[in-house]
Structures are given as structure tokens and as C-alpha cells.
# Entry
Amino acid sequence: MKLKTKVFDIESGGALIVLLNEKIAKELDVTSGDRVRVMAEGKYVVAVVDIAKKLKNKDIGVYDEVRETLNLNPGQIVTVEPEEIPESIGSIKKKLDNKEINVDEIYNIVNDIVDNILTQPEIAYFVAAAYTHGFSMKETEHLTKAMAETGDILKWKKKPIVGKHCIGGVAGNRTTMLIVPIITAAGLMMPKTSSRSITSPSGTADTMEVLADVSFESTKEIKDIVKKAGGCMVWGGALKLAPADDAIVKVEHSLELDPTPMLLASITSKKYVEGDTHVLIDIPVGRFAKCSAKRFKQLKKKFENLGKRLGIKVKVIKTEGEEPIGNGLGPALEAKDILWVLQGHEKGPKDLEEKALTMAGILLELSGKVKKGQGKKKAKKLLESGKALEKMKEIIKAQGGNPNIKPENIKVGKYTYNFKANKSGKIKILNDDRISRIARFAGAPKSKGAGVYLYVHKDAKVKKGDKLFTIYAESDWKLSNAKKFSKKWSPVEIK
Amino acid sequence: MKLKTKVFDIESGGALIVLLNEKIAKELDVTSGDRVRVMAEGKYVVAVVDIAKKLKNKDIGVYDEVRETLNLNPGQIVTVEPEEIPESIGSIKKKLDNKEINVDEIYNIVNDIVDNILTQPEIAYFVAAAYTHGFSMKETEHLTKAMAETGDILKWKKKPIVGKHCIGGVAGNRTTMLIVPIITAAGLMMPKTSSRSITSPSGTADTMEVLADVSFESTKEIKDIVKKAGGCMVWGGALKLAPADDAIVKVEHSLELDPTPMLLASITSKKYVEGDTHVLIDIPVGRFAKCSAKRFKQLKKKFENLGKRLGIKVKVIKTEGEEPIGNGLGPALEAKDILWVLQGHEKGPKDLEEKALTMAGILLELSGKVKKGQGKKKAKKLLESGKALEKMKEIIKAQGGNPNIKPENIKVGKYTYNFKANKSGKIKILNDDRISRIARFAGAPKSKGAGVYLYVHKDAKVKKGDKLFTIYAESDWKLSNAKKFSKKWSPVEIK
# Structure
């Protein structure tokens, strides 16, 4: 059927959509959610039909993606035909019926996600299948590889390549920004990609961005940085690394679903595309962390098994997830903490330093750089000698930042509020969720200088009226929101 | 935050969506899929955020639904604030975790579906939960009532009110159009709503539309028709009956999911809103039907249990699902069949007549109109005496049709093709799926005169060259598509 292009100047931001009115849809024997093939000048796309009552009879509505792919002009005549359901949908159904799906089926699904052929509800069924039935390790391996191989992959001649990842859920956990300088100071390569925050006050990419650029769109740029500095700390989202992940996360978001197969594949595929040979996975366990002690055991086994299947040596450790780590929470406040630790300054938070040294030590041993039992000692030496700081400066410089930046010169929000103890006693609970929300109400991570600075940690003794934390914001309005929330939902419990 | 309205002149056709660019979204601390409250002149809506890169910084993009609800003009300034996640999402998550949800939670979910607050992937998770874990009968009862009570309900002073429903899957199964005239001829009320076809050559609403109007938008109109004629056969889709069903069916469509709780609730809620007191459910079982013998037993038990909970006397019968019923498949061809049966004409298909008499007989007994064992006899009498035909004429008239229409005057497609036996023998298989597809390729149900007319049924003996069926189409192009398919995938197997 010949239809006339009507252009809507927006992106559909997912599956390719075309709009048809009811009459034309009936004529084509398609309904909302069915697919059609749209053809123009020798090119074609397969798009999902949406019924739009207001459209003129012979019009087909297209958004930017379809328009750009077919290079359409407003009013241009296109040919439209009904199209079969993609095979990948049958495979998703199969998985929802708790049947094993094979390597081809999994690659088909991931390809169709990346190519915007599957709609959000269809991807949601895939997530639901993984959430309710789980995946076999074989399926998880295929999913991981498919997610990696549908995007860019970093390739290195030298080995080992060192990687780390934290599954998240604990505010302030910026160990990456200490581990990468230490590991690279030991002469190992560590091309680290990180995410931005979704629900926490800051992600590693947000914090690193205070010190240097993190958005690089080509793997060539990354390779150049790593060549110069031995490592990098960049935002994975700017690159085309495991692009299916974004579409999957999008439909997981509102229900806060994080099915194990997706968790394993999302993290491991990113380590795989970094080219890592040795990887440490940090899983915080505790009241406010994402992971229970029981789930930790399962995840540890699965991560290590998956690593073996992909030729990556993976070690998984359980860490403290009872309270935030470090003192600063929010991009600028965290960046200051990091520089203070690297400088050996007394303001550097000891818990963060200790955790980073332990992890760097494990990685030095895992990669064979030092003998068993010597890792942490070596890491400490690299930190205390200032070699790690030197490496940090090299990386900042390679990523276009100012290597001589001083922590005291990093700007924080000028609107502040001191939250004080309402009685004397011992800190019993430091509620990570609530502190994170306060920091976000204050504007973090979007406002780099916003966040929370903690003066106390769990088990500290305090007197009534002591400052427990300061809220920093870049606007009066945001400060008052954060203040209001902190008064309503105190994140600190004193006993 | 204050933003400027940018109008996109289309319907989003589901959850209320607003478009923000990335910068504004960050400023509001929301991301794609999060909710915002949009306020203008004392009114507000809660809408889901979609990120649109091309939008100007301070613009908010709105589709028709948001625009109309808030009565917005292009360029108008609105206030936008982040909004909490609806509670119903937590309940969907709970169900996906295989935990029982209570009456309030179920009503919340259904309300939020009807009010376009839930997105398609969120509804898909609800369907996935029902599909993988099932619902308890209590949950199913609440779902059914919630689906009914969020729309219009027909109320009657007189009792009994008779209803029927077929779960579908067999082409040509137009028993409703014989049962309603018979039951109303017996003096009982039968306000029947039907659906249009989704995948078959015709639905009851499509076939009835050949003879009369079926689209009535108010319950008052329906009541007037029933008052005049004792019954009706109208399209449920034009009314606001169980409106959540449409949104649910939309996300079930591409995976062809039909979870038992949704099946039970969808059908029973519609009987509930018709005000039925006595209902017969027809479940075809067989090779090409939707239902296996095993599933039949489960469904029968559940339908009857659910009926009891809602105060409806429900009986479920298993019927033949091995081949199409009747001879004509497609709106006009089926309407001719129906009139022939009502006239006692020899062309009236016997299998369809027999099935309708059996079902009408059961309903006459179930409702207490006649004694046990006398139902079918009574039904036959009403048909053979011409009383059912008279009732049909009354109903056609009440629905604005021509009561004196003759079957031979109903127009069918002028483009025809005779499909002939390629050998002599006995008909072993009459593939319902393939025949349906041939009829749809020919243009049914959109082209009223298109479809397939069968000359043979299963077990019939045929000679090579005998006509097995005729394809009718309203255009040469559609005929050749149907012909091509029938040659490639013969729906008849002769042994």
C-alpha cells in the first residue's frame, strides 16, 4: 500500500514506530503492536504500528529514526506491507515458558534489542522470564557474549588487563579512583569504564568528571589515553559498549528489577569489552546494600563460573554494606576525598583508603604481579610513596583535566546546612538510602558541588548538638528540599 | 520547574507521556520512565517522562491526551515536579515475586491501567506475573470485579439475564447469532456484547454488522434495544465495558500470551457488566483450538468457581475444535449462513445449527425456563416454528438494520477462486489456522464480502477435481494473495 509521509520531529527513543489510522491499519490487516515493512527508494525498515486516530487517511506518521534511516521528506510516498513477527519474540515466549534457549536464539534477541526491533513490553517479557525462571550458566554466557559483541570491543596486545566492578548500592564507594592509580602505578594496564549514577548521589563517571573529561565516543580515544597513562576512568555510556544493556535497564527501572542473568551479563559483558583478563567484583552486603548474604553466595559462584567460560579470571569479595563509605557523598565532595587519600592528607577517609588498598592488593595478586600475601603491602607502598598520585595526575592529564588540581580548590555548593545530633550516644544506624536521597534532593549528581559530607560513621560516640553531617547545595531551593527531607526522615539513629 | 508547552498533534495511545530533554530531566532528577506531575491553571496530570534530545532546553513536549486534560495552548507555561512511583507498581512487583496481592492492590493496578498511569512494559510485567505464577481464585475474583467496575455496567430489573461466550479459536463459530434469537424467542433477556475479530476471518460483531449497526456508545442505547427486542448483539468495544481489558490485550498480542487469570477475568467481567445471571461458556478443544483437553478441565473448574463468587450461574462445555464450523467464513458469508439456518433453508449448515441448538437448550435449562432434558427440544421448536427468525428481525430492526434482508441479497466479493481436490479420498484434516489465514489474505474481516466458503467438512469423501472451497475477495490483488497462500499451504489433507 502507498502512503504519504507525515513527519513528527521527535525521536521515538526505542523500537521504530510508525503511526497509521485505524482504517489503513485494517486495510493492511495489522493492529497496534504489529509490524510493517516501510519501503522507500530501495531501502526499508521494519517498524511497529501505533494507531493514531487523528492521522489523515493515506498518511503514515514517522519519527526521526525511521525518517533518517529511509532519508524521507515530508509528503514522500512510501510503500507499506505487513511484516511477520520477528523470530526473537518466539524465543522470548519460549523462555517465559521456562524452556532453555540456544545461542542463536539469544543472539537474535540481543540483536533485535540493539536494532530497535523489539518494543519495550517485549523486552519486559524477556526481563520477566529471566527474573522468574533464571538462566542456565550456558544461557548467561551466551547473553553476556551477545551483549558484548553487538557493541564495540577494546583489544589489547599486552596482558594482563586488570578490571574491577562494584554491583553498587552503597553511597560514596569510589574505590575505582584509588585502585586505578595504584594498579597502573604497579605497571599494569587498567582501562576502566564506569557508569553514571542512577539512584545514588554519584557514580564513578560523575565524580571523575569533576577532575577530567569522561565522555569519549571512540575506542581509539580510549586506547590513546591508556597508551599515555596506562589506564583510564571514562564513562561507558558515551561509547557503544554492550548497547543492549541500556534498553534492558530502561524497562527494569520502574519496578527496580535486577534479575541475576541480567546483572551477571551486564557487568561481565562490560569487563569483556574492556578486554580484561583479571577482574575483581565487589559485592557490598548489609542492611542497605542490594545484596543479601544468601544472594552473595550464589552470585559469587555464578560470577566466577561465568568468568571461566569467557576466559576471564574473576574473583568476588563480600564487603561492608551497612553504611556509606568515605565522608563525601556527591561528585565534588567525593573527588576531594579521593585526592586527599592520594596525597596522604589526614582528611582522606580511612575506611575508603583501607577498602581500596585491600582490593588493589587482591588484584595485584590475582594478576600475578606480586606473590600471594604481598598484594596489600605493595598497594600501600604505591600509595604512600606518592606513585599512585603521580599516576592519577597522568590519567587526569590524558583525559584533558588539570593534573595539578588541589582538593581544597574543588568547588562545593555554597548553600549549606549542618545536621546535628538530637541526643548523646552511639551511632547505631547510618541509613544509606536516606542519606543518598538527601544528597539527591540537594542536587547531586547533576549539581557537581551538591551532596552530603559525613563527620561520623557507625559506632561513633557523639554528644547532643555535635555536627553529624553537612548538606551542600547549589541553590537555596534544593537545600531547603534536602533539609526538609532530612528533618522528616533522619538518616541517623543514636542509641 | 517552569517549562514551555510544545504541542505534538498526535495521541500517545496509552500511558500519558511528556517529553523532556536530557538536561531538564537531570535538573528534575528524573530519567526516562520516571513520573512527573505537570500542573497548569489548577489542574494536573501525572505523566511518564520520555527523553527527547531534540527538544529545546525549556520545552516540555505533550501529546493530545495531556494537552486535552490540561487544556494547554502551544507555548503555555506549565509547572513540572518529580512524582513518586505509583503504588500499583509495587503490587505488580509483589505479584512477580509470586506473593498474593489483596483486593486494594488489584483495584489500584486496574485503576491505574484504565487511567493510563501505567506504561506498557509495566502492564507487561503484570501479565508476565499472571502467566508464570497464576492467580488464586480470590485474586481472580478481585481482578474480574475491578475490571468490570472501572467501566459501565448494565443493570436490569428483570431476571434471569442470559449470557454466553466462546473462548474462540475456531473459524465460523457464529452460534451467538442463532442462540440470541432462540433465547429471546423463549421470552428470556439476552443483552449480548461481542468482540470483533483479532486473528480469525470474522468476529460476531463483524458478522452482525453486515445485518445491522453494532457500534453503540452508551448503555442507554443498549437498554433501549433490549427493551424493544428482548436482546441485542452489539460490539462491546464501542462501550466502556471493562476498559482495562484493551490495554492488557495490547501487550499480550505479539507474544500471543493469554494467561488463565486474564482469560477468566476478561470473559467473566464482560458477562458481569452485561448483568448476566446465567452463562454458558463454550470451549472448543481440538487440534486447531486454543485449548487442550487438560487445560479445558482446569478452565471449566475455574470458570464455574469464579461464577459462583460473582453470583452468576456458569456452565462450561467442551465442543469440537478440529475444524471450522459452518460453511461461510468471513462476515457476509457467515451472515448468509445464519439467515439460512433461521429460515430453515437447506443451505443452512447443519453443524452450526446443531451446535447452536445444543447450547440454546442448555441455557434454557440452566435459567430454569424449561425442565431438565427439555431444553434442546424447546430450542428446536423455536427455530423450526420461525419464532427465532422473527426475533432476529426484531433485533436487526432495533439495531437499525433492514429486518427483511434476504440471504441471497447479501453481497459477497466478486473476485473468486475455486480450490479443488488434487486427488480422490477422504478429508483427513481441514486446517483451521490456514483457512483463517486464506480468508484474511482475501480481505476478511475488513472487506465484509471477503472470505472462504467451504463445500466439505472433515471425513467427507471427495473425488479429484471436486470443489473443496471458494475464496471470495473484493479486489483482484487480495484474491491473488489468498490464492498464492492456499497453493503454498493447502489447508486440506486428503487420504
User: Anything to note?
Assistant: Chain A has four domains: 2-83, 87-133, 162-239+265-398, 411-494. Chain A touches chain B through 49 residues (CB under 8 Å). The mean pLDDT of chain A is 94. Residues 2-83 of chain A form a domain with the Barwin-like endoglucanases fold (CATH 2.40.40.20).
